[in-house]
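Render this sequence as a predicted structure.
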Amino acid sequence: MNTAFLLMAQYGARAVIPLERVCADYFSHLTPAKLRLKIDAGEIDLPLMRVDDSEKAASAVHLMALAAYLDAQCEKAKSEQLMQSKRLPFNSAAVPSHELPKPTFVPNESASDLIRLPEVKKLTGISASMIYKMISTGDFPHQVSLGDRAVAWVRGEVLEWRQMRIDSRRADP
């Protein structure tokens, strides 16, 4: 089933859905204001839009962006379930490489996308203080300055760092 078609049916073939409606339907545990904060912080990868350039215009989500987000969450859940069902032994070097699960990347994610600290922490499982300590020793990719008080990391560099850590663990018996 195509998620976009189902969303078109749900929202009466509207291309743009008000943030409040998306929040009520898919993020019922959040208020619209909290959802907007999480999106702005990069914790939820869902682009917001305004129909015009006015600051007073209501925030909305494009139907195709919501479909892509939902599909990505579904793929992420499938990947996590697969990993849990195929619990690897501690010494994964004993497992033939053709039996190891292949890394699954979420669709619509570009390696050059910039991600904020909460996403970096989620991808690596490392605390913020440890990330900054590893940056200072040259053991973790440097962040990119976005402005006076904002930084982000290049998604591909973080994913590459994570894969190198996994590969080095598999190489060490």
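Summary. The mean pLDDT is 82. The two ends are 44 Å apart (CA to CA).
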